[in-house]
Model the fold of this input.
Amino acid sequence: MSEFALETSQLTKTFGGFTAVKSVDLKVRRHTIHALIGPNGAGKTTFFNLLTKFHRPTAGSIMFEGVDITAESSAATARRGLVRSFQISATFPHLTVKDNVRVALQRKLGTQYHFWKSARTLDVLDAAAMELLADVGLADAAAINAADLSYGRKRTLEIATTLALDPPFLLLDEPTQGMAIDDVDRIKRLIKRISSGRTILMVEHNMSVVADISDTITVLQRGEILAEGPYAQVSIDPAVKAAYLGGGHA
Done:
């Protein structure tokens, strides 16, 4: 088994005459937290969209756990365990926090398409749902509708529903975007805790989060890799300072 859970080779995406991602060779080591950073327009979201098959690459390949998944559908890739959370909170606002997690957990029952069945069929998931909510710090909010949570706790719930799928590889897209300092610290600790036994690739603007929990950082600029390494190395790179850290943008 390779030490790398995910590898891209010469991954490229063009839109008309514009190249959003250009010949990116990225290797994500298994059971680590790998951050993808760069200025606005650097190609980070497009790169994520290529990994999850929202876009088809113009050229290059994607290997996941030693298998070429370049031509797979997004559903097939997700079934392999490469699962993504999004910048915008994606929960069911009028369901309780616990029911949001139960809906995600029901995949294990094989009943995800049985919409006509009684909601009581999900009662067997109560214990698992509460265990997961306790793990992410939301057990006290189990009976609250998702719409009534603070923004930071909604993002926590989204991570919880993603974890309900028990993915070995988790893609986090701006997990702390728009959060207050206390929520950022909570999410940072949560990401570090859930990284045990799984691989995480995250796009993140908050450099304190990146510095504190990332094992490896890849910096993109204009769709290409500008620098890569641990924070101590990347943060003093003159090219990175000029393109990213010194620019005040994320």
Observations:
- Residues 112-116 have pLDDT under 50 and may be disordered.
- The two ends are 35 Å apart (CA to CA).
- DSSP finds nine helices and ten strands in the chain.
- The beta strands are 4-15, 18-29, 33-37, 59-64, 67-68, 82-85, 169-173, 199-203, 216-221, 224-229.
